[in-house]
Amino acid sequence: MSNEDTTDATDAPADEAPEADADVDAASEAETGADADATAENGSEEETEGLSEGDFVELAYTARTVDGDQLVDTTSQEVAEEEGVDEEDQEFEPRVITLGAGHIFEDVEEEVIGSEVGDSGSVVVSAVNAFGEYDQDEVRTVSAEKIPEDDRYPGGHVDIDGQHGHIETIIGGRARVDFNHVLAGEDIEYDYEIIGEVEDRTERARGLLGMFLGDADFDMWIETDEEEEETVVTPEEGVNEDIPAEDMPEPETEVEVVEKETLYLEAPPQLQFDQQWMFQKNQIAQQLMDRLDLDRVIVQETIDGSGGMFGGMGGMMGGMGAGGGGGAEELEELEDELADADVDADEIVEELEAETEAE
Questions:
Q1: Share of residues in the chain with pLDDT > 90 (%)
Q2: Structural Rg of the chain based on CA atoms
Q3: pLDDT value at residue 124
Q4: What region, left, alpha or beta, does residue 155 occupy, with left being phi > 0 and alpha being psi -120 to 50 degrees?
Q5: Phi then psi dihedrals of residue 132, to 5 deg
Q6: Residue pair 274/213 in contact by the 8 Å Cβ criterion
Q7: How far is the CA of 197 from the CAs of 118, 128, 291, 324, in angstroms?
């Protein structure tokens, strides 16, 4: 009897063992899966930690040549004063940049990406990644006639055939001009500190404009405007491709109200003399729209009559701005100005008409 009991007792656990093992395996697999998920989650968090491309950051930095310790650029007022480059019309303060936009050398950008606000460091940018290696073939002899007379001296900066250079020597009618960048062949050391991350879109716009135009002082704001737009209605039955284009009926249109995210810029008067703005305002506006997710940029100018004889004549800013109209008062003012300047308005009109006919 005791043997039978023993057999029964021994047999029962043997029958149940596979189920218990299966439970243990399932629990182990669940734990492993949970650990894997946690690891993946942590890894994902680690990958996204810190600053990333597209972020706007306020950066303080000083750049010097590795060989010679020559100052290249700085955002420090103290450094500028020590180096004697603190001009009255220039402010030295941390700058707002967009990571991934090429606003700083790529080597510095790679160091900043993944960092945190408050981090600082030092990066050496090799000559090839900075201002290029020095190329002896870029030192050429040119005719002195290509150089304005006032610039014909050693060290003078010149622009010849679309290239910028500086004169090494000038003898007789020939000049030796170096078209390399003045810092070509130099490794550059950047000491930097990440001051903060910029979230406000208006401040982001201000920072981007500062990258292009320095200390130009804009009043700016962002508004969501509502405007009516005419759109073509697509026929429900679709377009019949068998009908020739010339026989197609006029497309139906409808008017709908759309929202436009708009950056308004109140341009300072002195901006009309800024060559970079004059030639690149459309590209600058496009950068603002792309980086800030805007629909348009409108530049507004205020002309107070201090800009010369034709100071009261405003206009459109290359498709970016809102121009003013005209009127009888403006016409009278213009005629008075022409009279004061001893200019014959009829004579100007005749000359313009003659030029138009000639064209």
A1: 33
A2: 35
A3: 96
A4: left
A5: 90, 160
A6: yes
A7: 10, 30, 15, 38
Q: Residue 154 in contact with residue 33, Cβ under 8 Å?
A: no
Q: Please tell me the distance from the alpha carbon of residue 254 to that of residue 130, in angstroms, as a whole number.
A: 54
Asked whether 226 and 217 are in contact (CB, 8 A), the reply is no
For 14, the enclosing helix (H) or strand (E) is helix 2-48
What pLDDT does residue 321 have? 39
Q: With cut-offs at 50, 70 and 90, classify the pLDDT of residue 242.
A: confident
| pTM score, whole prediction | 0.60
Q: What is the pLDDT of residue 48?
A: 53
Sign of CA dihedral 73, 76, 77, 79: negative
Mean pLDDT of 151-157: 90
Token reading at 205: 């716009």
Tokens of 148: 């304005």
Pairing relation of β-strands 174-178 and 139-143? antiparallel
Distance CA 26, CA 199 (A): 48
Q: DSSP string of 245-287?
A: GGGSPPPPEEEEEEEEEEEEEEE-GGGGG-HHHHHHHHHHHHH
Token code pair at residue 322: 């809102």
Dihedral (Cα; 104, 110, 112, 114), 10-degree rounding: 150
| CA separation for the pair 132, 222 (Å, rounded) | 40
Q: Which amino acid is at 234?
A: T
How far is it, in rounded angstroms, from Cα 179 to Cα 198?
38
Tell me the residue type at 104.
I
